[in-house]
Automatic annotation (TrEMBL):
GO terms for biological process: DNA replication; DNA synthesis involved in DNA repair; double-strand break repair; SOS response. This is DNA replication and repair protein RecF. It holds the Pfam family SMC_N. Keywords: ATP-binding, Cytoplasm, DNA damage, DNA repair, DNA replication, DNA-binding, Nucleotide-binding, SOS response. The keyword Nucleotide-binding applies. Residues 3-344 form the RecF/RecN/SMC N-terminal domain. PANTHER family: DNA REPLICATION AND REPAIR PROTEIN RECF. The lineage of its organism: Bacteria, Bacillati, Bacillota, Bacilli, Lactobacillales. Signal peptide: none annotated. It is found in: Cytoplasm. It comes from Fructobacillus tropaeoli.
Length: 372
């Protein structure tokens, strides 16, 4: 899979920009605050119908304008497909092959991307919400059913939390209605938990192989899903539902007092172990960065395994954050395999030695020129 063309209209600091990319490595060079990351953000948004930098869509619209639009053309083994995404006062509109998409779940997955930015090095030691978001975004691109289940879970959770909050504040207290919401939540939660568990098992297989290569075969990486119930490989949905039901029964009084749902996928996490020790707690900074790199590169291989296509890789100023050894493993892993977009003030010495014939774009004040 690759992105061959990109057009921006009133997006961030870009007035009107049309770009053509090569299938290998494309590099955006320029000083800070010139618009390099905005270009990667536009590709990410074209793929996932959302920014990774803001939750407010109006932030994406160029100052003084009423509408922003991103359009692109993707190539995969089935042919070429135009995509577009626009934001205006009327809301967000996504199109595939010039046809409006009424649901984003039918849009997401047309273009698969993996973003690797300096903050992703905190994937290992960051808060649980960072790792939950990692699973939801990456697995959601590979599996439309999971994407739909995740959306359904969030809706039921919102309704249940609103009712529990009202209960805690002395409002309406209908136990039968609360039980219905709980049953609905448990049904979807059980499916999400099992899907995440399977995803992490597959990701571990890919990431551990890469981690061992970077660590000279001296370290083994394992992933452990943490949820309110013990989950083992091979568990069935009804077993997970039964275990969750017991947890909700145990938490019932506390939830009514605190006005919120205390267990479920929205509170889950996964632990990254290196040589059977939690690398976030006991690992060195080098081990933590190796683990984060292994997870990101493992995603690439897993996405290819699950979808039959390699994703587009976005490296936002991340090379300067990695030492020469990790830069080398990263660039060797993607060379001649994954279409890649790199942003940097300048290319590192390692990158210049390893990257074969990159297409270089010079970015300055929202204008882009191809380096001759």
């Amino acid at each position: 899979m690759e992105l061959s063309e990109l057009s921006l209209s009133h997006f961030r600091n870009y007035d009107q920009t049309d770009l053509h990319f090569q299938s290998g490595i494309n590099v955006f060079l320029g000083e800070n605050a010139q618009g390099k990351t905005n270009l990667l953000e536009s590709i990410y948004a074209l793929a996932l119908a959302r920014s990774h930098r803001t939750k407010t869509d109006k932030d994406l619209i160029q100052w003084g304008q009423k509408e922003a639009k991103i359009a692109g053309r993707i190539k995969n083994r089935f042919g070429q497909t135009p995509l577009s995404l626009s934001w205006s006062a009327k809301g967000k509109q996504a199109r595939v092959n010039h046809l409006d998409q009424s649901r984003l779940s039918t849009y997401i997955g047309q273009l698969n991307v993996i973003l690797f930015a300096p903050e992703d090095l905190d994937l290992v030691k960051g808060a649980p919400t960072v790792r939950r978001r990692f699973i939801d975004i990456e697995f959601g691109q590979m599996n439309k059913l999971y994407l739909q289940q995740s959306s359904q879970y969030k809706k039921i959770l919102k309704d249940r939390n609103a009712y529990l909050k009202a209960w805690a504040q002395g409002g309406q207290r209908d136990q039968i209605f609360l039980d219905v919401l709980t049953e609905q939540l448990i049904d979807v939660a059980s499916q999400i938990i099992l899907a995440r568990q399977k995803f992490l098992i597959k990701l571990e297989a890919q990431a551990n192989q890469i981690h061992q290569e970077v660590a000279s075969q001296k370290e083994v990486l394992t992933l452990h899903y943490q949820t309110a119930i013990p989950v083992e490989e091979g568990m069935q949905k009804d077993q997970v539902q039964e275990a969750l039901s017991l947890v909700f029964e145990k938490n019932a009084d506390r939830e009514k007092r605190q006005g919120t749902t205390l267990a479920g996928p929205h509170r889950d996490d996964f632990i990254i172990d290196v040589n059977q020790a939690n690398v976030a707690v006991f690992g060195s900074q080098g081990q933590q960065r190796t683990a984060a790199l292994a997870l990101k590169l493992g995603e690439i291989e897993l996405m290819h395994q699950e979808t039959g296509e390699y994703p587009v890789l976005l490296l936002d100023d991340v090379l300067s954050e990695l030492d020469a050894n990790r830069q080398t493993h990263l660039l060797m892993a993607i060379q001649d395999k994954v279409q890649t977009f790199i942003t940097a003030p300048s290319l590192t010495e390692v990158a210049r030695q390893l990257i074969k014939e990159p297409k270089i774009f010079i970015v300055k004040a929202g204008h882009v020129q191809v380096e001759e």
